[in-house]
Amino acid sequence: MRVILAILFFTYFLCAIPFGFLVVRQKKGIDIRTVGSGNIGATNVVRAGGRLAGLLTLFLDAAKGFFSVWLAGVCTQQDARVMALTAAVALLAHSFPVYLKFKGGKGVATGVGVFLVLAPAAALGAAGVFLVTTVISRYVSLGSALAAGSFPVFYYLLNFWGSPGKAGNLWTLLAAVFCAGLIIGRHHQNLRRLAAGTESKFGGTKK
User: Fold this and answer.
1) Which of 2, 96, 105, 151 could cross-link 126 (Cys pair, CB 3.0–4.6 Å)?
2) 132-168 pLDDT per residue, tens
């Protein structure tokens, strides 16, 4: 139990690190929360600091989630329950970081990182949904929400559906549903703007 608690505490304080905030502060000397949408994620970092800053933020946000779940697996001999809990804590930490008074990002990049460990095939499927949706619509928020919603569907289809011999894990499925719901919920304002026709496409001022 102590090992599990240590993993979860470590995950929270690692994944709460607001890399988007730090990258923009280092490069431009400004608070990204005062720019564009005010979000600390990679899309707003691109607006505030340029593409390289956005790519660095995307990588770091994904890497912290990936490393946390990977480490949980190493420390617990691939215990699916602990790895699933770690994934959930990673998303919660990024979304509600203690370092920024619990006002964080929307969890997309960190979600990619954690599920590249837990379910890489489903994560790649969801990434495909994101790319296709975003390229066609130019709405990053729409691509993010649809990708998040598609991930547990992909996981179920690849690991549970059709064959009784498939090795799906219920804990991973529950983590996928929880994280997808959290990411979609964090995009609620974007979805409302999409419904109202006021959401800006990528390159605009909102996300």
Assistant:
1) 151
2) 999 999 999 999 999 999 999 999 999 888 665 566 7
> What's the confidence (pLDDT) of residue 53?
95
What sign has the CA pseudo-torsion 118, 124, 126, 131?
Answer: positive
* Dist. CA 197–CA 191, nearest whole Å: 10
pLDDT number for residue 200: 78
How far apart (Å, rounded) are the C-alpha atoms in residues 184 and 128? 17
Inter-residue contact 159 to 109 (CB < 8 Å): no
Tell me if the pTM is above 0.85. Answer: yes
Residue 78: which residues within 8 A CB-CB, separation 6 or more? none
Amino acid, single-letter form, for residue 25:
R
Q: What DSSP line would sit under 64-97, residue for residue?
A: HHHHHHHHHHHHTTS-HHHHHHHHHHHHHHHHS-
